[in-house]
Structure formats: C-alpha cells, structure tokens
Amino acid sequence: MQRLKVQIAYDGTLFSGFQVQVNARTVQEEIEKSLMKIHQQAIRIYASGRTDSGVHAKAQVIHFDSPLDLTETNWKRALQTTLPNDISIGKVEKVSRDFHARKDARDKTYRYFIRYSKDYDVFSRNHEWHIRYPLDIEEMKKAAAQIQGTHDFTSFSASKTNVKGDKTRTIHNVDLLESDEHVVVEVTGDGFLTHMVRIIVGTLVDIGSKRKNLQCIQEAFETNDRRVLGQTAPPQGLFLWKVNY
Amino acid sequence: MQRLKVQIAYDGTLFSGFQVQVNARTVQEEIEKSLMKIHQQAIRIYASGRTDSGVHAKAQVIHFDSPLDLTETNWKRALQTTLPNDISIGKVEKVSRDFHARKDARDKTYRYFIRYSKDYDVFSRNHEWHIRYPLDIEEMKKAAAQIQGTHDFTSFSASKTNVKGDKTRTIHNVDLLESDEHVVVEVTGDGFLTHMVRIIVGTLVDIGSKRKNLQCIQEAFETNDRRVLGQTAPPQGLFLWKVNY
C-alpha cells in the first residue's frame, strides 16, 4: 500500500460542502467515486478539514492509501480524467504511511474576497461577496489586529458547531489586501471553528460600515457571546487557500 | 408609450442562448418574464442580436416599449430586482420611438478569452478557453491582420446559418491582447454571421499551434469553403463586449 498526498482545487458553487452526506453532491463523494473507478474498490479519503456548502478551495489537501503502483504524473492524470470539471488536481506526492492530512496540518490560510461597489457584477457572483456600501478599511485593519493572537474563539463559531472541547486557537495573521473596489481578507491560523472565518469577515465588514464598533471584539473574547459580533459573511467569498505541514 | 434602451450583462453558462425557444432557459425569456411582472402584461424585447448557448454578454443592448412612466433609475431597480442573478442591468435610457437595438447598431465588439497553460483552472472554466499547448502569438497576429477588411465571410459561418443573402461584412479590427498565459482576441465589425467570431478565433488558434498555416485565410475567401479553416472555438470564452450606435 502507498499513501498519496494530493492537492485539490474545487469550485464550491455546485457542491453541498466537502463532507459526504445523503442526497447531496459533495467533493468527498466525487473524489471517492473517481477512486472507485480507478481501483474498482472503495477507497476512503481524508482531508485537512471540511468546507461548507458554497465555499471554494484553491489548495485543499487530502490523503488516501492505494494498492496501485502509479507514478505521481499518472496519478494526477488518472484522477483528473475521472473527476467532474469543478474539481482539479494539483500536486500529487507519495508520502510515508504516518502522514495524515488533518492531524499533521500545522496551519491553514483562508482568503475571503469582497467587492464593494454600487454595481452588481454578474461574472463574479459565485466567487466574492458584493457589498453596496463603502467600507472604512483603516478601521477594519484595527479590528483585524485585535483578532490576531491566541484566544478562546467560542463567540466566533456557529452555535451549531460540532467542535467539542477547548476552543482556544491561535490566529497568526489577519491581513487586508486592497485593490481599488476589492478587499481580500487573508487569515492564517493553527485551527478554525465552524464558520469562524466567515464570522471574522462579517464582523470586520460590520465594523467597516459602522454597524459595529471596534470594542465588540474585546467584548466577544470576554463574554463568549456570539451576539456581540457581526454577521456571518456568505460562503461564496471564501477560499481555503493553503494548508501548511 | 416610452421606448427604453437598456444595457444588460449576462453570464451565459446556464442559458441556452439569448433567443426564446421551447423547453430551454433563455435570456430573452427571463427578461420578458421580468417585464411581465412589472407590467402585468406581455412586453416584447428586441436585442442588438442573438448570442449562442454558453456565450456571455458584458454589454448587450435591448429595447422595448412601455406604457409606464418610471425614471431611468427606477427602471434599473425594477428590472434588477425581478431578474435572476445571472443577468444584470447597466445603463437605462429613454430613447425616441424610432430607435431600434438591432437595426441601428453601427458595429459590435466581441472579446474572446483564451488561457494557454498546462494547468487546468477550475474557477475560470466557464469563462475562457483553456488550451494546453503553446501558441505562436506573432503568427496569430499576422493571420488576424488578413481577416480585417471587407470580405465575403461565407466560409467563416456555420453551415446551419440562418443568415440569408449577402455575406459580405466589414471587420474593422482583430486585435490580440496578451498578458502572461492569457490572450484576448478582440473583434470589431459591422456585422457577424452565425459562429463567425468562434471560427475566426478557432482558426487563429490552429494557426498559432501550426495545425493550419496562414494561407488558409486567403484560400477561404477565394473558395468560400468552411473546411479550409480551423476549428470552431467553444462558446464559453466569448463575450459580446460592446454595441456601438
């Protein structure tokens, strides 16, 4: 048996998220169907983590074990030709049997794409959050700085979260990258709770549009109360950008 | 009655082209449904021309007549809120009753987006033509120059074309705009036959990849034979970019 580590990109628009579920099209299901065609037997995959319905990945990482002996180039080709066209295969590597896509992930980077403009753009509707009001980017940067560091992020997670136990995480960076009507929020951290990036971004936007003030972040850390923070940003602006091992 | 001239953009991915047809979702049908909601009566629209299934528009132009007395801003809002999210409304203008979106169009500009790269990009699959082989852009520019001018474009149209009569058209410009792995072919002309831009682009690509040689263009004008030209480029790279009056 050979363990393979595979980078994948997917357009989340037509997926009900990553993880297999009944009566819904998911990324995991499509990849396992592709592996079934290649192996004529069921092969289970393990990802660095899930993504929600409508969320994209530029470089998600999965691993699986295979009895087949293919070169990395042939693995890439075999997977790409059996997958639907909204999933693509990046780097394929043969790794040791103790590598684990989720457990060995040191940190992850997400990018969230926002466009603030009066005009609707029909071509980017599935890949960014379109906001019609202006944003105070400087105020958002101050808020971003307060989120960085090691905190109990209970208030930054969906109430329906299935993460149990300690909710302390370390966020290394929350950076805002601007270019005319666009702003990209890049978040890197050692772990993320359910909807955590989308709540961070929604709160930054609410601070940038004066619906919330800067103090809400400190208050959230002190009270663990989801309600003091801003909205949950919609899924289509979010990309799992990179997983570091 | 007031005649309205309206710029619209649409993502052609989920449309079976512009023109109404039975059992297919079309742009015309969606706009006429929107106008039906606004008027509570059927309103017919007229476009500068059709676009094929999967082809996009950045600025298609339509006109229609309405008994309603709305400001241009309110027209824009009324249309946008009743349309699906893959059609968007640009400029709305009140025009005289003798304006006609098709008959008055002086010329049109199309842009065709090509990416040549070994790697597949899942996020642009519906909005460009991905080519895995390198292209000789200089050779393509020479071919582009030969297409410009006034010619009988019979060989540059689909055999199933429903354009009758004279097939002489004037192409003002065929320009290639390059940026690293991308090339955009911009074509401006006074009229276009069925698939004409896609046959121009497919032929340029076949010349750029040495499957066809430069001489095929002159031969096509002399023989009116579709078969001497290159492939028909796929629809998803094509955008109706601008209609000039």
From TrEMBL, chains A, B:
One of its GO terms (molecular function) is RNA binding. The active site is at D52 (nucleophile). It catalyses: uridine(38/39/40) in tRNA = pseudouridine(38/39/40) in tRNA. Pfam families: PseudoU_synth_1. SUPFAM superfamilies: Pseudouridine synthase. Substrate binds at Y110. The keyword Isomerase applies. InterPro entries: PsdUridine_synth_cat_dom_sf, PsdUridine_synth_TruA, PsdUridine_synth_TruA_a/b_dom, PsdUridine_synth_TruA_C, TruA/RsuA/RluB/E/F_N. Residues 9-102, 143-245 form the Pseudouridine synthase I TruA alpha/beta domain. Its EC number is 5.4.99.12. GO terms for biological process: tRNA pseudouridine synthesis. Keywords: Isomerase, tRNA processing. Homodimer. Belongs to the tRNA pseudouridine synthase TruA family. NCBIfam families: hisT_truA. This is tRNA pseudouridine synthase A. It comes from Allobacillus saliphilus.
